[in-house]
């Protein structure tokens, strides 16, 4: 049996829903079968990580053992001390496995990929959150089993959404009332049906039927036009953007739906992002759990540190530096290729430009019109800016130019 990627085929949902049936029945009658929850998690992990190729499963085990050691060593230290550099060291240690995995393609050295498995990024975000909130005092009690359960919550393990520990614990340690669970079931079914539409119908149309043909047409202009650019590239930009959204949003809907069936209110990842009126609004709607994680644990902490130590006095410069740092990290997180880095820089510049425009607009609000037409233009402009960034992100320019 080969490893089965979660939510990869309609057949997966038949087996998954059969596995969830005892959980659903238990919650319907006000019971949470914790032993069966553990059994269901083990079954899903075996199918996803321990199929024909057990390398991912072994990597997952090493990763969990490593992170448990890091987290609980730091928690033991934090009970007596609170040194900033020790805290920084443990944050770095928590991300070391992810760094190894990200460097593997760059160095072409398989020996450093001990921790390579699906979802390592999302588990790392959770681990880093635990370290940071331990230092802040927000997480006062934590048992090894609770930490592992948080990391290995199977509906979200491979691609999120990224939950927060305290919010997750509140749900998993309680049983919803019959009325609350009926609402969760209704919400779960709606999200499941919407996810099937997004991923297996609309996403399939754009990603499987249309995108390869548009890519072939786009690449056919190599050597034929200046910089190998053509109108086909514009078509590719829009088609890829649609595929990226519907495929990923569909997956996220599945994860939230299955969580709901299990009585867990996993946060949503998308909120009509193509209706955004500016780029900041877009990042409040697109992959929200990731963007909010970066905002809370990188951007805001960097801003606080710079203001506290007065490294830079001008608030606008501080914010701009924060954007560049934040989106460079996000670019490198996606990969060490030039187009991911340019994608990050592009969004940093877009955020800086957007803030400059909002400041200008605030000073000249009487002379700048604001109505449904200007709003529609703002949505249209933001949509095209975002699609252009996704074209960079796709790597098509790398194929055209290099």
TrEMBL record:
The keyword Transferase applies. Pathway: Cell wall biogenesis; lipoteichoic acid biosynthesis. One of its GO terms (biological process) is lipoteichoic acid biosynthetic process. GO terms for molecular function: acyltransferase activity. Keywords: Acyltransferase, Cell membrane, Membrane, Transferase, Transmembrane, Transmembrane helix. Its EC number is 2.3.1.-. The keyword Membrane applies. It is found in: Cell membrane. Belongs to the membrane-bound acyltransferase family. NCBIfam families: LTA_dltB. O-acyltransferase that catalyzes D-alanylation of both teichoic acid and lipoteichoic acid (LTA). D-alanylation of LTA plays an important role in modulating the properties of the cell wall in Gram-positive bacteria, influencing the net charge of the cell wall. Catalyzes D-alanylation from DltC carrier protein. This is Teichoic acid D-alanyltransferase. It comes from Companilactobacillus mindensis DSM 14500.
